[in-house]
C-alpha cells in the first residue's frame, strides 16, 4: 500500500466532503437570509462558549476558526476513507465491515447533532446535517470509486465482498 497515495487521495476526498457540507450550509443560510450563520454559530460555540444562538454574530474569526476545524475533521475522514478503499480493494470481504462502520458512525453522529446542536441550530439541525453528510459521502465515495479502478473490478468479481469459500 502506497501511503503517499492514500494521503493524497484522502486529502482530496476530505476537501470534497468539507466543500459539500460547507456548500450545503451556505445555501441553507443564504435562503434563510443569514449567510455564514451556521459556521459563525458553531465557531462561537466551539471557541468562545456561545450557548444562546440569539446572541450569535456572523464574524470573520468565528467563521474561519470553525472552517479550519471542519476542514481538518474532513481531512481525517478522507484519509480514513482512502485507507478503507485500499483495504476493500485488497480484501473485498472487508466491504461489509466498512458499510457497517459507516452506518454506525452516521447514526451516532446524528444522535450527537440532535442532542447537542439542536439548541444552537434549531429543530431542523439534524435534517440539514443528514442531507449535507449524504452529499459529502456521495462526493467522497464517487471520487474514491473513480480513483480505484481495481476496486471496481474486484467488486465486479466478488459483489458486496463475497468470498469464494
Would you write up a description of this structure?
This protein is an all-alpha fold. It is built from six helices and no strands. It has one domain (3-153). It is elongated, with a radius of gyration of 18 Å.
Fold blueprint:
Blueprint: H1 3-31, H2 37-48, H3 60-90, H4 94-121, H5 125-147, H6 149-157
Give a brief description:
The protein is an all-alpha fold and 165 residues long. Helix content is 80%, strand content 0%. The protein has one domain (3-153).
Query: How many domains would you count in the coordinates?
Result: 1
Calculate the terminal CA-CA distance, rounded to whole Å: 25 Å
Structural class, judged by helices and strands? mainly alpha
In total, the number of strands is: 0
Biggest pleated-sheet summary? none
Question: What Rg do the Cα atoms give?
Answer: 18 Å
**What general outline do the C-alpha atoms trace?**
elongated
Task: Give the strand content.
Answer: under 5%
Chain-averaged pLDDT: 88
Report the helical percentage. Answer: over 70%
List low-pLDDT spans: none
Number of helices: 6
Helix and strand run:
HHHHHH
What oligomeric state do these chains adopt? single chain
